[in-house]
């Protein structure tokens, strides 16, 4: 299993904003004050939309505390801080956290690990796709347990890839098994440290976990990031 923490440590040191939104405008050499403000505004737009969707389908929820898992430089965490009394951003990249803290409002805290905190809103967008599922399922299980009764969920996971992405992936495959229906990779070139690996999750397993933690009704939106298809799941934990 690749050490994806090392990838994000390197990206955080070198290109923290581009590592969050892979657009040339957000490279260190290109970023301007106007581009930076646009960067933060995308976070506001997303999170206000997510909150509105949750409230429309599940009713209002407490805004006392929020957790943004895989916060990066705080693009979404800052926006959550505008809607919640206290927001926490969690990330493993020291470079990302340095940038996040540089722009942090007073009610937003950035950390590299959690204690025994619980939260009223758990958010994680375009994060788990970069975590190997063997590890990601364990992390998600812990995070779902930290949502307070009646709390909200906005969670993105990737599920499958289409040909537009697979044409880039096939050259990295070295050995595998083809049974006419499914290809199983035995070996593939994971590249140098600093690359963005893209992993797919099992929707049945995700639904089992959310249900076990009290999220029995979910709204699901389809996503497609360059041929990597997934969903954003919205819900509220039962009381």
Question: What does this protein look like?
Answer:
This protein has seven helices and nine strands; from the N terminus they run ααβαβαββαβαββαββ. The chain has 239 residues and is of the alpha/beta class. It has one domain (4-236): Rossmann fold. The chain has a seven-stranded mixed beta sheet with strand order 3-2-1-4-5-9-8. The protein has a two-stranded antiparallel sheet with strand order 6-7. The longest helix has 26 residues, at 33-58. It is globular. The model has no long low-confidence stretch (mean pLDDT 87).
What structural keywords apply?
239 residues, alpha/beta, seven-stranded mixed β-sheet, two-stranded antiparallel ribbon, 7 helices
Q: Over all CA atoms, what is the radius of gyration?
A: 18 Å
Can you tell me the CATH topology? Rossmann fold
Number of helical runs? 7
List the secondary-structure elements in sequence, H or E. HHEHEHEEHEHEEHEE
Compute the separation of the termini in Å. Answer: 38 Å
Q: At the first level of CATH, what is the class?
A: Alpha Beta
Unreliable residue runs = none
Provide the residue-averaged pLDDT. Answer: 87
CATH architect. name: 3-Layer(aba) Sandwich
**Shape, per Cα inertia axes:** globular
**Strand tally:** 9
Helix content: 25-40%
CATH superfamily: Vaccinia Virus protein VP39
Structural class: alpha/beta
Total domain count: 1
Strand content: 25-35%
Q: Mind describing the biggest β-sheet?
A: 7 strands, mixed
Strand arrangement in the largest pleated sheet: 3-2-1-4-5-9-8
């Amino acid at each position: 299993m690749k050490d994806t923490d090392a990838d994000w440590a390197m990206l955080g040191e070198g290109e923290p904003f581009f590592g969050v939104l892979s657009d040339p405008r957000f490279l260190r050499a290109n970023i301007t004050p106007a581009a930076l403000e646009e960067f933060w505004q995308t976070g506001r737009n997303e999170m206000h939309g997510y909150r509105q969707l949750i409230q429309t389908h599940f009713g209002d929820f407490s805004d006392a505390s929020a957790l943004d898992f895989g916060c990066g430089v705080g693009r979404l965490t800052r926006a959550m801080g505008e809607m919640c009394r206290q927001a926490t951003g969690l990330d493993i990249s020291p470079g990302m956290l340095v940038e996040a803290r540089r722009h942090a409002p007073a009610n937003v805290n950035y950390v590299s690990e959690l204690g025994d905190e619980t939260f009223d809103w758990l958010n994680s967008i375009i994060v788990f796709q970069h975590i190997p599922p063997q590890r990601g399922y364990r992390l998600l299980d812990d995070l779902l347990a930290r949502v307070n009764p009646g709390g909200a969920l906005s969670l993105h996971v990737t599920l499958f890839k289409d040909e537009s992405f697979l044409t880039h992936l096939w050259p990295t495959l070295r050995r595998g098994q083809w049974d006419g229906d499914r290809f199983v990779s035995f070996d593939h070139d994971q590249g140098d440290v600093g690359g963005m690996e893209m992993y797919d999750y099992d929707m049945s397993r995700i639904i089992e976990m959310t249900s076990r933690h009290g999220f029995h009704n979910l709204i699901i939106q389809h996503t497609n990031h360059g041929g990597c298809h997934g969903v954003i799941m919205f819900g509220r934990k039962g009381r």
